[in-house]
Amino acid sequence: MLRPAAPQRSQLALGTTTITYLPDGFATLDPGTFFPGADWSAHPGHIHDGSLVLSFGSFLIRMPDRNILVDLAVGNADTDLPGVGHMQGGLLLDNLAGERLSRDDIDTVVYTHLHQDHVRWTTDASPFASTPRTPTDLTFRRARHLVSEREWQHWSDPSTTGGPDRDLILEPLTGAIEFVQDGNTIAPGVDVLSLPGHTPGHIGITVRDPASSAPQSVLIVCDVLHSTAQISDPALAFATDTDRAQARAAREHVLAHPASVIAAGHFTGAVFGRVTGERPL
């Protein structure tokens, strides 16, 4: 089976603020596993050679005096996922360098949530290395690291499974992590929006031009949406949604804001789009 090419860098501008999608990699996955019960014949064009394709990456919010990364993607990976697909990544730092930025230029990291495909550039140790390594430092060592308190507490519970690696992610962040909540301002024009459902403390990031009163904004929704099929059918539930009713409510909430451009990092092709009453543009 031919695997699709890695997603491409793309960018939007709001005044002097730019929002850039920095690709890290992608996965080809079994659609029945990740969208259980979905009838893909009702959503033609969303499955490729029998596989669901998800992109991985980060959003760089760049302002005259700030460089903010939203999520830290999947990290160095080229691995089979037995029975469900294949995943590869590792492009994030190269694409950051393409913006003429180094890891030390990043002043803030914001995690929308702590699933493994959003956190693996947290440290300099890959979970996929043939020889396990002990992290020596945070990748973005000069940055503040922000997450919702509810998200952090959920995955810090030793009884919770399926989250970030404790040795590679949680322990190195302990003492460095800071908590944010709905309505908090991270930088002028950059605000936190609570969007629980996929995980208990999932957040989105709203970006506006701080120098303009125009209603236009970019809403980084991350795992509120995994496929463009969910735009026309918000009832489509992703397998790892912790609360499907809440997750659907979050999807319907973000899709009801026509003044916002939606940024969804798991989409293939275009990760930015505006939703109308009829179709995405």
Descriptive labels:
globular; single chain; alpha+beta; Metallo-beta-lactamase, Chain A; 281 residues; nine-stranded mixed sheet; 15% helix
How would you describe this structure to a colleague?
- The chain has about 280 residues and is of the alpha+beta class.
- It has one domain (about 10-275): Ribonuclease Z/Hydroxyacylglutathione hydrolase-like (Metallo-beta-lactamase, Chain A), CATH 3.60.15.10.
- The protein has helices at about 30-35, 90-95, 150-155, 165-175, 230, 245-255; strands spanning about 10-15, 15-30, 50-65, 65-70, 75-80, 85-90, 110, 145-150, 175-180, 185, 190-195, 205, 215-220, 260-265, 270-275.
- Strands 1, 2, 3, 4, 5, 6, 7, 8 and 9 form a nine-stranded mixed sheet that branches. Strands 10-11-12-13-14-15 form a six-stranded mixed sheet, with no helix packed on it.
- Strand 14 and strand 15 form a beta hairpin.
- It is globular, with a radius of gyration of 18 Å.
- The mean pLDDT is about 90.
Short description, anyone?
Helices cover 15% and strands 29% of the residues. The chain is an alpha+beta fold. Strand 5 and strand 6 (85-89) form a beta hairpin.
What is the element layout, followed by pairings?
Elements: E1 10-14, E2 17-29, H1 31-34, E3 52-63, E4 66-70, E5 77-81, E6 85-89, H2 92-97, E7 108-110, E8 144-148, H3 149-156, H4 166-173, E9 177-180, E10 185-187, E11 190-194, E12 203-207, E13 217-220, H5 229-232, H6 244-255, E14 260-263, E15 272-274
